[in-house]
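ESCALATION

Customer reports they have been waiting on this structure for their group meeting. Please prioritize. Original submission:
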Amino acid sequence: MESRIEEIKKRIEPLRQEIIHHKVYSCINNIESLRVFMQYHVYAVWDFMSLLKSLQISLTCTSMPWFPKGRGDSRYLINEIVVGEESDIDINGQRKSHFEMYLDAMNQCGANTHEIELFVNTLLESGGFTKAYKAAGTPNEIKEFVDFTFIIATSQISHLQSAVFTFGREELIPSMFTAILDDVAKNSLVDISLFKYYIERHIEVDGGHHGQLAILMTQNLCGSDEVYWQEAGDMAAEALQKRILLWDGAYNKIKELGL
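Update from on-call: job pushed to the front of the queue and completed.
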């Protein structure tokens, strides 16, 4: 099964490189452009949490009465990831989800959180994505990214959920981004320490322990089924293509604003 993981990695590597070296990073050179980037990226942080919970629902019993569900090792893997993502330790030692940590970082550096908060609150009240997008004025690139995530998240097909989670998510932020943030911090009086902490934490966690747990989870779910492995590779590639479009949207907005 390790060879099948390597096959997927080889297949998606050109897309990964396109994301890691995306032109959006080269135009984040001041606090204003960073704020725009964050206003796009925050949606990926939010829907990542939803994809995570869809896997927990698929692989564990989340209702009462409780009954054992699925493989014990898969339950363990997803529950361990949930603990880290949903209740991590922020820069002050307080327990928060990564989404809440991201909002704190946006507020600290003056990025506009009104759109994402209006989106989330409208979705909570109405249950409808169309209403939430309209209320928040969500850009099309973000809509397409989130819509794809929720097609997978609501599919109840756990090997596809796991593939998108494993290969299409936050470890795609390059380590060189921390150097970009250092330059922004040097040239601005605005404090971005919470965002730097978030990025460093995500590179450490998603690129390390959680990344390995996710790979094991995908291996467990695909097993020896050739069709599952092919579908997993297809969805991983599509997830990366959606991320490229999201980054294109952020880049175009920064350029449109002349930042």
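Sent to customer with the following note: The longest strand covers residues 88-89.
Escalation resolved.
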